[in-house]
Amino acid sequence: MAQVTAALVKQLREMTDSPMMECKKALVEADGDIEKAVDVLRKMGVAKAVKRAGRDTNEGTVAAYVSEDGKTGALLELTCETDFVGTNPKFTGFANDLAKVVAENDPADVDALLALPMGEDTVKDELTEMIHVIGENMKIARFQRVTVENGALASYIHLGGKLADITVFEFSKPETAQNEEFKTFAHDVCMQVAAIAPVSARREDVPEDVIAHEKSIYMAQAADSGKPEFIQEKIALGKLEKFYKENVLTEQEFIKDSSMTIADLAKKVDKATEDTIQITRFVRFAFGE
Known about the structure:
translation elongation factor activity; cytoplasm; elongation factor; Transl_elong_EFTs/EF1B_dimer; EF-Ts_dimer_sf
């Protein structure tokens, strides 16, 4: 019997995108003949995953992962062919596992993620195996890693995995992360991010081009009023102020209580925790964006 080397297994895997153990079994059965091993894989049905690679993947899920210490997290979008699979616990669980790999390893892009170890194989191997097991093409569409040094992350998933966000909270006392009022506050803020889709967490983080675009529209609207230029400027600035209040997270009305803003809510939690909590940024993924 011919020796089945690691190099031969690797070559067969690259040819067929099949799982490592299946390639090894096929090579053993084919007595080391790689062409015969391909036929063995085809008969086993494993190589069908390659044929599925061309199918459209318009359904799927967004997964959110935050580490136990709240310092590291990731959002990841995994696509598939049908909504039925998109809500399958095996599929969504795999997406969660991938998000954890992203958080723990900080890959530069999808190719780097695919090359990372996952269990006894690589992410690419596990993805191929999942394609084979479930019977649909799948793709890692995008991901983003999020970290915080002094503070904690919180996440929220909405619409059965079609929308998710991670929000960054910064504060000075480590024990604040375990405070129940803070946890409720963090959950509510993440829910606000998901529901309202703010432009940024803070006014100073609104992109300059967005401000310029909005102001140009407000100036054009004010010009139609026929009022003096200095009045037109005041009108435009007033509308820009309204834009901030509607689109900057900390200045938005709290969706559960319109009598206060998110900044007002943060001040209440500051008193409860005897700390100063700042919402510095967030990452929001809506599936298919």
